[in-house]
Input
Amino acid sequence: MFSSSTQRKNWMFNSEQDLANLRNESNRNFVNDHGHKEGKGPSDFLTSADERILCKKYELYLREFCRKFQPSMPRSVIGTSFIYFKRFYLHNSVMEYHPKEILVTCVYLACKVEEFNVSITQFVANVNGNREKAMDIILNNELLLIQQLSYNLTVHNPFRPVEGFLIDIKTRCTNISDPQRLRPAIDDFLDRCLFTDACLLYAPSQIALTAIVYAAGKMQENINDYVTDVLMGTDGKDKLNKLIESLKNIRTLVKNLEPPPKDQIRIIEKKLDKCRNQENNPEIGRASCRERV
Output
């Protein structure tokens, strides 16, 4: 149950500002720590805004990796991967741990937790480039990721609530004869929602209901009575108003999505190569090993 889960207790936040504060703090801690050690100033490091742009870029990579994965990956694994990735970078800087390395670890851990049974060998077969290196990165980062998630690995995604709502609509919303007509638009909305912070701000059932309301509007179906009378009929006007506000906010998050600016990404990545913690750079680690040998 989401209501009694660690997700609700430890990983839900009141506002986007709360999330920004955590990300700013992670950035500030890294800059203060490494600036002091290395004699560098703030301008030598990425800003918190730079980090957000970079994370958005690697979220696109995450989605593409999952989309192409063989065997075909369940949506629950994709959703859980995104949530792990977002949680990790609430408390860690991309300058400390590079997103391209954390990304694949998030997906691998999500496969385990969601019981999508693929071996590490099968998993890295989906990785372009040096698969032995990819295996080392994933296995070396797996425990780190689990620790940074505070061992809270169970994730409640909106996909299951969507199925519940569609069954309920078929039973109790008589003006929609075939709720399955809504599914393509629901899936599209939920895919775009992955790239927002909705999963850190709103319950999975609220995200699911927003997707259904959005899809109904796209198909020119009216489910307002279902929401107000069937779902919320006995809960009073105050709870209904709060729900409507949450649905509007989730739609706004999705509506305001913008792709990360490519020209800025190139500059940020060049700067990251210079300011990242080289102790966590697997390339440096492998070179050091060769030198010792």
Remarks:
- Residues 242 and 248 are 10 Å apart (CA to CA).
- The first helix runs from residue 6 to 10.
